[in-house]
Amino acid sequence: MKKLISILLLSLYLVSTTELYQFLKIPVLIEHYLEHKEQNPKLTIGSFFKIHYDNPVKDSDYTTDQKLPFVSHEAHFIIVCTPATPFMFQLSGKESNPVIKSKQTFYKSIFYNKDILNSIWQPPKFC
Fold first, then answer.
1. C-alpha angle with apex 88: 87 to 91, nearest 5 degrees?
2. In this predicted structure, what is the pLDDT of residue 9?
3. Which of 12, 13, 25, 105 could be cross-linked to 69 through a Cys-Cys bond (beta carbons 3.0 to 4.6 Å apart)?
4. Is the dihedral angle over the CA atoms 8, 13, 18, 22 positive or is it negative?
5. Better pLDDT: 88 or 108
6. What was the pLDDT predicted at 92?
7. Residue 124: pLDDT above 80?
8. What DSSP character marks residue 6?
9. How many CB atoms lie within 10 A of CB 56?
10. What is the DSSP secondary-structure string of 96-123?
11. Are 62 and 74 in contact (CB under 8 A)?
């Protein structure tokens, strides 16, 4: 019994929060295909999908076309949880050292030697 309830709850959750609800529209797809098949007996399932999914046009059955699976998408059920008690943020009483920002100039650094870098980055020489 627990397994059945857990499968049911998981199915309800997935159908309500993902695109799985689109698979519930498959009977509409089959019924609409059969309607088109009555009008044109040479219609294949591939050409039916091409008509309705590749380049859909607004025709006389446009409202039915919009009910087909994966044609239109809707917002999913969203659950937002907030804590019951307000969140309190307190700073400690300790004083911290202030951050001193200084502008560093690398071109005056003792590690930077223009002559050494210029000797490394030269184009190849041909003899």
1. 145
2. 92
3. 25
4. positive
5. 88
6. 65
7. no
8. H
9. 13
10. PPPPPP----GGG-TT--HHHHHHHS--
11. no
Q: What is the pLDDT of residue 58?
A: 83
Nearest Cα to 72, choosing from 28, 122, 13? Answer: 28
16 contacts 77 by C-beta, under 8 angstroms = yes
| Structure token pair of residue 55 | 């380049």
The structure tokens listed for 36 are 């088109």
Which three-class secondary structure state does DSSP give residue 127? coil
Q: Tens of pLDDT along 5-30?
A: 999 999 888 877 788 888 888 999 99
Q: What number of helices (H) and strands (E) belong to the chain?
A: 5, 0
- Which residues does 47 contact at the CB level (< 8 Å), separation at least 6? none
- Write the CB contacts of 45 (distance below 8 Å, at least 6 apart in sequence): 33
Residue 51 to residues 55, 57, 58, 69, Cα–Cα distance (Å):
6, 8, 11, 14
Six token digits for residue 96:
């911290």
